[in-house]
Write a structure and sequence with these properties.
The chain has 219 residues and is an alpha/beta fold. It is built from six helices and nine strands; from the N terminus they run ββααββββαβαβαβα. Helix 5 links the parallel strand 8 and strand 9. The chain binds guanosine-5'-diphosphate.
């Protein structure tokens, strides 16, 4: 689909993640899978969406956040990988596992492959409070991630960049890749979003993400 070509409706809103107390996760349950906006839960729960390329560590991050080893497995079951998967945490807020994005190889060229439902959800869902875009911290900026975040910035939805698998290399290497990514995003009139590093192995970044979510829950 050509979501990347949609008109850019405005500048991204910057909303930094404040420091608050530590949120305890007491419950995490799968709610539903949606194949269209009309299938999304009809509720007023605030939603926090997670997205990234395949293998970026999204399932590991969702399991880490929820303290449940197999929560994200639900999203990987046949038929659900292209759907939006909703999980309710602490009976209070919703974690939405979004299908990833990538380049689909066509006969003649590469085509940006971006699930249309994801575009609709990100542009239209009133419950959506923040998107966490997962990026592999081991890699120099990938065109696909830079392209997606540029598009997302144009929607005006608050988002954070989460650099995953930080345990896999030195802190200096992670910092260098983050700096390169920020550089690749910084065009005139674009605000670079919040970013944090995480590791499903060391649990780094978990508290920071939960604090950000908690902050968004405050009236
Ligand atoms: P997904 O496709 O984005 O859901 O990625 P997964 O969570 O399934 O992770 C892909 C692979 O990377 C698996 O082998 C994970 O064990 C590994 N992985 C994910 N996160 C981390 C991390 O923070 N550190 C390390 N060392 N490995 C990770």
């Amino acid at each position: 689909m050509d979501s990347m070509k949609r008109p850019n409706p405005g500048l991204p809103r910057r909303s930094p993640l404040p420091i608050l107390g530590r949120m305890q996760i007491k419950s995490a349950v799968f709610v539903t899978s949606a194949r269209g906006l009309s299938d999304c839960p009809a509720w007023d729960r605030p939603e926090f969406a997670f997205i990234g390329r395949s293998n970026v560590g999204k399932s590991s991050m969702i399991n880490l956040l929820s303290n449940k080893d197999a929560l994200a497995k639900v999203s990987a079951t046949p038929g659900k990988t292209r759907m939006l998967n909703f999980f309710l945490l602490n009976d209070l807020w919703c974690l939405v596992d979004l299908p990833g994005y990538g380049f689909a190889k066509t006969a003649k060229s590469e085509k940006f492959d971006f699930n249309e439902l994801v575009g609709d959800y990100l542009e239209q869902r009133a419950n959506l409070r923040r998107v966490f875009v997962l990026i592999d911290s081991r890699l120099t900026p990938q065109r696909i991630d830079v392209g997606f975040t540029a598009w997302l910035g144009g929607t005006g939805v608050p988002f954070s960049l989460v650099f995953t698998k930080a345990d896999k290399q030195s802190a200096a290497k992670t910092r260098a890749n983050i700096a390169l990514f920020q550089e690749s995003m910084s065009q005139p009139h674009t605000t670079v979003p919040d970013f944090l590093t995480c590791s499903a192995k060391t649990r780094a970044g978990r508290d920071e993400i939960l604090r950000g979510i908690e902050a968004s829950l405050k009236p």
